[in-house]
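Run folding on both entries below.
>entry_1
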Amino acid sequence: MERRLSLIDRLLADTQNALGTVFGAPSAERDNPAGDRADVVLDDAERRHAAGLMRINHVGEVCAQALYVGQAAVARDPQTRAALLAAASEETDHLAWCAERLAELDARPSLFNPLWYAGSYTIGVLAGLRGDGWNLGFVVETERQVEAHLHEHLEKLPAADLRSRAILEVMKEDEARHADKAEAQGARVLPQPVPTLMAAASNLMKSIAYRI
């Protein structure tokens, strides 16, 4: 039987998650996909470019954590809440892998991660309050957009950066599976202009996170 948490319990758990995601050192449950790939030496321009792309992907995982935790906090159906938290758990793997790759590239995460987390958590709560169908609809749209930008990054990465590529390939597979699962659970198709606004916000985030 699922333990029913009080409002205070949920707030404390969500606060702990936020602090761990933004300031902590998350550990992955699965092995890093880049584990057996050679870490070749990139020139300065290639390293900065790879780091910028991986910083964007790290921010994306910060946002995914916040979005799913916010949605789960107000989800009405226990099955929906469990699915959201399961997706968030896999996103923790992605977060850890991206952080490890940033460190290998002598780069740091985005300085705006606290802001990205707060904004995404707020969006998650607002989406969840609309009902579980809309909740799952946000999961589908989020994952499809993330899947698309991961595909773009795989094309833009320096050809020699096999370690970053290995990480993004597994992440892309996971995002597609999360979207498929949410659709199977009854996700509603988000009406315009919601997907367009989500894409615009994502593009703004990517342009900033690439550098800062």
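>entry_2
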Amino acid sequence: MPETLPSAVDLFDVERLQLTEKEEPRLSPSDKAARDRVWEKAVRANPALFDGPVVACAGLEHTGLRVLRLSWVRVTYRHYALRRVPGATALPSLFVNVLQPTYDGRVLVARMSSSTAASGRWQLPGGSVEPPQPGEGLVESDLAGQAARELFEELGLDTGAKVLKLWAVTRGENGSVGLTYRAPVLSEPAVRAAFAAAAAAERAQGREPELDEIALVGSPRELEYLAGPYADYLGLLVGRFTDQLER
């Protein structure tokens, strides 16, 4: 069995999701005003912040073997300013990410650039879930499609959504819920070449890439040698991957 690092993260072995939309909880006038003040202060400090639409998680529950019901809510990034309002409760964020393995049994991890809100943090490539159009529901293929898009935008890997497989669901220490998709195995040179090309293309357009470095790790312990902090779920997912290789 591989070594694993201590973690307060929950991991769900999931094969299928049942997605149910819920209404955003109503806020008291005082909480709403406090939320807006926190958000406006954050925007003054970082004008790049954008109050775009995202999906929050309103609940998780098992409904069968490897079947998980996920309740979701349409919010905007402003909603998460409630985390800094005493006595208020923010719904957990919902994000997709991709586990990209290589032929030598390692997993790609990526470091967020200084232009992002999580500067210097190592994680899997991915991003926040975006809601469907008004009147439309969220379906699992949408989530796989968003994961494939993140993989292409951040790493230059053009992996179609149909070949991404839902592999795990995590719930972090702050309640954030991650949907992890597993991509087909690639060679290390192919991964590095795609990332270098994607980063160069972003800089040619005058934009700073979201990721400034990638690495390949073969065990949770190797995360300790990375320069910088890493996402709370990362050790657990790397450990699960290496455990499956040994079976």
